[in-house]
Each structure stands twice: as structure tokens, then as C-alpha cells.
Amino acid sequence: MYSDMFMALVSGPLEEPVRFLLLRYFISGSRRKEYALVIGIGWGLAEAVIVFAAQAPVAASLGYSWIQLLPGALERNTAILFHVSMSMLIALGIMGRLRQSCSVILAIIVHSAFNLAAVYLAKSMQNVWLVEAALLVVSLAIFTPIINGFRRLPEDLPRG
What we know:
By secondary structure, the protein is mainly α. The chain has one domain. 83% of the residues lie in helices and 0% in strands. The chain contains 6 helices and no strands. It has helices at 2-30, 34-53, 56-61, 66-94, 100-124, 128-151. Helix 1 crosses helix 4, helix 2 packs antiparallel against helix 4 and helix 4 (66-94) packs parallel to helix 6. It starts with a helix and ends in a 9-residue tail after the last helix. The mean pLDDT is 89.
């Protein structure tokens, strides 16, 4: 359990600065906010392949049915939504709605806290469907204010 908690704790500091650098490069060069969505979806999909899709055939060969694998697939969709949220949060900093350093620090904290909560819920609750429902609710609660701020951004940053 402690290694799971450690991995959850370091996920924010390891992932969010890299996400910031990618977004800063693409958004600064193009001046378009849509790159935050593209990078968020791509990040989430890449993680889904690494975490779930690569392991599903092994689990199936060990006798797990598709219904037993379904919660993991749904969790990866929640993770994609979460990664889109973190990308949009960092884009808010890059595009001037928040201070850049504040958006990255907030993304680091939220990312690690979300993953710590996921590990805690997975270890303490018996019903995997309740765990996934709780994570979806939290992910939507994170997404909602971020998307509202993101929608208010101009389509293109003025060249300056």
C-alpha cells in the first residue's frame, strides 16, 4: 500500500511540469487554446494504453472476463477527463488567466491529491463500482470550474 501511496504522491510533481513544458511550447507557438485539449486527451489515452490496454490481454488470459475488466476501462475514461482538466488548468496559466507558477503548483497538488484519494478509496472500499463513481464525481467537480474558465479564454492570444 505504501508504494501505491508514494506513486500517487509523486504523480503530480513528475507529470505536471512536463505537461506545462509541452503546453507552453505548443500554445506559445500557435497561440491556440485547443492544444490544451489535444494534449490532455493524448496524455490520458497514452496513460490508458500503458495502465489498462497493455494489461487487459494478460488479465483475460488469466481467466478474467470482460465484465471484470469493465471497471478499469471506465476508470481510464475518468482519468482522461482528469488529464484534460489538468491540461486546461495549466493552459489558463499560460494564457494569462492565472499566474503560470500558480497554475502548475495547483495542478501538481490536485493531481497528487486525486491519485492519493483514488488509492485510498480502492484500498478501503469493497465495491469497485462505488470507487469508480466517487472518482468520476470528483473528476467532474474538478473539471467544471476549469472548463468555465477555459471557455472564457479568447480563441487566439493576441500577438504581442
